[in-house]
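Case study 2.
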Amino acid sequence: MNGPCPEITRRIRHRAWGGVGLGVLLGALVARSAVAVEPCLRITSRVVTTNRPGYLAAVYAEPQGGRLFGFNAVSADNGRSWRPQVWQPDPAAALPHGYRREPVTAVRDPRTDRLLVLFNSLDTPGLDPAAVEPPIAQETYYLRYRVSADGGRTWYADEPVIQAGDYHAQHPVAGVWIGTNAIYLGDVGCLPVITQAGEVLVPAQVTVIGADGQLANPAGGYTYTEVVVLIGTWTGEGRLRWTASAQVRGDAFRTTRGLLEPTLVEFADGRLLMVMRGSNGGKSDPKFALPSRKWFCLSADGGRTWSEPDVWTCTDGAPFFSPSSMSTLFKHSSGRVFWMGNWSATNCEGNLPRWPLVIGEVEPRSRKLVRDTLLTLDTQRSEDEARGRLDLSHFTLLEDRETGEIIVCYPRAHHAYQSYEWATVRLALSRP
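Prediction:
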C-alpha cells in the first residue's frame, strides 16, 4: 500500500502538521516508491481542532453558490464561516421523554432541488436520552424522513419510511415488525444516492427475527443484521413513495455480525456497487480466526435485486484486512469513484484497530479497489498511544464546489471514544 510508514508519518506530523507541507512531503515519499501507480489523491492541507467542524455531514443546499447545510451548522460562504443550524420546525419539539429523532445522512436531489434527510427514530417512553446505542434500539429503531424545498430553511413531510402496499408504521418494510426487530441507518456512510433514473436509494440495515420470534444472532456477535436498500420515487406532492429490495444476507459463520453499514455508488453504466461492513469474533469465533473483511454485492436493476454478497477484493484479486467499521463510497464530479475506510496489515479483532485511515480509487469495470492508488490519511502515532486507544472512523466526505477538492472530516477519538479532536483534510486529484 502506498503511503508513509508510521515512523515517517510521525516525523511529518511534527514538521508540517497543518499545512500544504504535509501533502508535499507525502507526495515526495510516494515518488520514491517502487510502485508504478501513484496514489489517486494528494493531501493539500490538514487541520486538527478541538471543535467539531461544520463540514461534518454537510451537503450543498442549493444548485449553485456556497450555501452548505449540516445537522449542527450552516454556512452561506462555502464553509469559511458557520452558524448554528436551527430546524424549522424542530423534529424533536414536543416529543415525549425518551423519544428520539437522530439525523444520520442527507442528500440534495439535483433534479428536484429538494433536500432529503433520513432520521433514525425511537418512540420509546422513558428511555434515557443520554444512553448511547441502547439495546432496545435493536428492536425499536425505525426510519423517518424530512424534505426541504428551500435549501434547508424549512421542512415538511416529517413521516416514517413505509413500503408501499400492505405495510404500516409497525410493519414498515417486509420482514420488519417494530417492537420485535428494527430498521435503521448504521452510520454516516449510509448515504442516499440519486440514480440516473431519478430514484432515491437509501442503504439501510435490519435486525432479524429468528424462528423463536426473538432477535436472531446465530454466531453470537454483539449484534446481527442484514441489509436492505430502500427505493424512493417522488410523488406530485413532493413526498416519497417507498419500495424495497430483497434483504441481502451474509453467512453468519464467515461474518459473525452479518452485514452492516452499507454504502452505495452508481457507475456511469447504471450498475450499482454496495460495500458492507462485516466482522469476526463473537461466540462462534472467540479467537478471531476468521479473516476481517469488507463485503460487496452488485445490482444491474436499480437496486431491486443484488448479487450474492462476497468478500470485496482489490483488482489484483487479493482480499485485504479491514476491521468491523464503516466505510464510504464517494463519487467525484469527474466521475471517478473512491472508497474510504480502515485498512490493516494484519487480521483485525472485531472492531479494532480502526487505523490506519486510507482512501483509494475503485476501478469502474471490475468495481474493485485499486491497491496501488491507496493513500494513508492518518494513523496511530506515538503521541496517540499515550492518550489511549485511537479510533479513526465516522468520517464524511464532500466535494468543494469552488476547488474540486475532496474535504474529509473525521474525529480522532481517543481512549475508546472518551475524548476527541477533529481533523479536516483536503485532497486534490493527483491525475486526470
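Confidence is low (pLDDT under 50) at residues 1-36.
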